[in-house]
Every structure is written in structure tokens, then in C-alpha cells.
Amino acid sequence: MRIVICPDKFRGTASASGAAQALGAGLVASNLEVIFMPLADGGEGTLDALGGANRSSQVTGPLGDRVEAKWRFSSGQAVIEMAQASGLLLAGGSDGNDPLLASSAGTGELIAEARASGARRIVVGVGGSASTDGGLGAIRAMEPLVRFSGVELIIACDVQTRFLDSALVFGPQKGATSAQIELLRRRLSRLAEIYLNEFGVEVRDIPRAGAAGGLGGGLAAVGAQLVDGFGLIAEEIQLADAISEADLVITGEGRLDEESFNGKVVGGVALMADRYQVPVVAVVGSTTPGTTIPKNLATYSLTEIFGPDLAFNDTQRCLTQVAPQLLM
What we know:
By secondary structure, the chain is of the alpha/beta class. It has helices at about 15-25, 45-50, 80-85, 95, 105-115, 135-140, 165-170, 180-200, 210-220, 230-235, 240-245, 265-275, 300-305, 310-315, 315-320, and strands at about 1-5, 35, 55-60, 65-75, 75-80, 120-125, 150-155, 225-230, 250-255, 280-285, 295-300. The protein folds into 2 domains: about 1-40 and about 235-325, Rossmann fold; about 45-230, Glycerate kinase, domain 2 (Alpha-Beta Complex), CATH 3.90.1510.10.
């Protein structure tokens, strides 16, 4: 029996790789072939899903301090995770963040270093950001932009948010007050005009341009391609081939809700498994009441099985313990 284990992260409790290994540890039957393919959708975990870090650089953090950011460079391709350089957690979460000051400069510094290292293709995962600067900090750190001529810059996004909606949609989770959200929205509006005048690109019309506080739009203005993060990662690791040859697929994430089926990992895996008529199971930390779950997707909630305290505080042990049930 061939089993593909391909979860997303369980935010705050287990990385995608840790979750996959924990599930695998519970599958001990001798007739099982287990394939580990931890996933991401363009947010945190993108770097691990695409091979893991093999380089580290000192860059400007979201609030101006120096941070150590991990990234990957191999065979002419660089993989950068915005959260490593400009992430909300680096700013101390929503309570420690300054939504008006937070900058994407460090992400731009990583992109510039990747180019200086010889990268001809640069993939940037843009989830988990502290900033709502429309990508201006990153663009300034990347100058002179002429050096990116002929370089394929791909932005892996996990949302479809428009540029001007970024402040309203993501501002509250970055610690912004109502007044600050309005200031950020006005700043994004002015930036959109600047990008149109300077680069000839109308970022307000581009789907996904609001990703990471408008970083998606800023980088699109200088020639980047904004793509669906799950689709990119699935293609890079050849997930479809693995699922097509599997007898069972196990995926999962921390919280299952309607957004899980809107470009996210669990929904993407369920669709792919359905395409190849392979049984698929999702193990999740919890499920939002009322969530519409596809008929082909069986779900197991750690909170319902083990209780909220154990599910959150000892997630990996819960994953290992629930794994044998998935074979039934």
C-alpha cells in the first residue's frame, strides 16, 4: 500500500514537515510504502516545501533591526520566504508590530542577494508579512532594477486580494487600528499611482496584488509574475505524479474552514486526489462549524478526538496516535 503524506503546517504547533513525520511515525505496518511531501501554499513553509534552506543572510527586519534570514539557492534558482525577512513574528506579532513603520526592505535585500549570487529564477513566498508598504521597501532595496532584466521573478501567493484591499483585509491581524487602516489604504492608493507613472503597470487591477501587504503588487510593477502558491509548489515537487500512483493520500492543516478550499493546501490536495480517484483524508487541528467539506474528503479533528488542550499543546503526538485510524 502506497501512502502519500502531504500536509500543510499546523500554525503555531507543527511545521508541515513535522506534521508529516508525526503522521508517518504512526504508520508502522510492514506492507506500507510512505512518501513524505510536506506542502505550503505560498505562505510560511514554502521554503521547506521546495527543498529547505541552504543559505542564510543578515537583512533588515520589518522594524529596522537586523535579522538572520534563511533562503535557498540551487542550480540557478533561489527560493525566498518573506516571513524569514519581513515576517510578523519577527516584529513580535500583532502586539509588537508597528503597522505604519513595518517595511518589506529585508525581502528586497534577499532578492537582491539572490540575483548577485547568480539566480536566474527567483521564487518568493509572500505569506506571514508584518508590512503593508505596497512593496516599496523591497523595490528600493532591489535597485538598480536593471540587473533583474531577463530574470524570472515568481511570487507565490496564497490569496487573491486586490492591492487597495490589502490594508482592510490584513491590517487588523498586523495590529493596525481603524485609523491606521485608513492611512495605509490611502498610502497604497498613492503608491498605485506612483507605480503606474514610474513603471506603466496598473497594480490595482491585478489579482493577488494585495498579497503580503501589497508586496505582490509592488513586485508585479517591476515585472514579477504573481501565481497561485499551492499550484506552483505542487508542480515543482511533482505532487500530481505521486498522488496518481498512491493508494491513499493524507493531508492536513491546523484549522479547516471555507478558505481551506480556496487555493489552500487541503483543498488543492482533495481536488487532485479526486481527479485520480484516490482516497484522501485530512487530519486537522479543528474545523470551523458550518464548513462545506467535499464529499471525497474524510476529516479527522484532533480537537474532537483528543480535546483542545492536548490537540494544541502536543500536536505531533496526537498526529502519531491518530494515524492508524486513517487506514480504516
